[in-house]
From TrEMBL:
Pfam families: DUF2000. This is DUF2000 domain-containing protein. SUPFAM superfamilies: Peptidyl-tRNA hydrolase II. It comes from the Bacteria. It comes from Sphaerisporangium melleum.
């Protein structure tokens, strides 16, 4: 039986990225949800032989694809609704570490961020309104 969650996790990636970039952006953004959203991590796993495995995010993550304008729209909606989010911008493909990533984001005003991905975690109805019009990634 499927569990129902009061919250929803959505990751939005720019559709024109190379496959490796989409995967990289999605992984980094999922780590932000794991680090910053309360109560999203489940219990550790174990197989029948007792080998331990790391805990994962306990609810589905829906991945959406859109163009640059769609990302900007979602970003604007999320900011106006106070939804916590993680951003990944184009400049981050050229950096090699977390400190440089933060510096490159800080160099842009919100309205000019060259977005390639966003991750959001919010109550389901609020996130549905924020992601309205987007399609799931094929």
């Amino acid at each position: 039986m499927a569990m129902r969650f009061d919250t929803k996790i959505g990751i939005v990636v720019r559709e024109d990225l190379a496959v490796w970039q989409k995967l990289n952006v999605t992984a980094f953004l999922a780590s932000a949800i794991a680090a910053g959203a309360e109560d999203v991590i489940g219990e550790p796993y174990a197989d029948a032989d007792g080998n331990p495995y790391l805990a994962m995010i306990r609810q589905p993550i829906l991945v959406y694809a859109t163009d640059a304008a769609g990302l900007t729209l979602v970003h604007t909606r999320a900011l106006s609704r106070g939804i916590p989010m993680a951003v990944y911008i184009e400049d981050m493909f050229k950096t090699g570490h977390d400190e440089a990533n933060r510096a490159t984001v800080q160099a842009h005003p919100a309205e000019t961020l060259p977005l390639v991905g966003l991750a959001l975690h919010a109550p389901k109805n609020l996130l549905d309104k924020t992601l309205k019009g987007l399609s799931l990634h094929p």
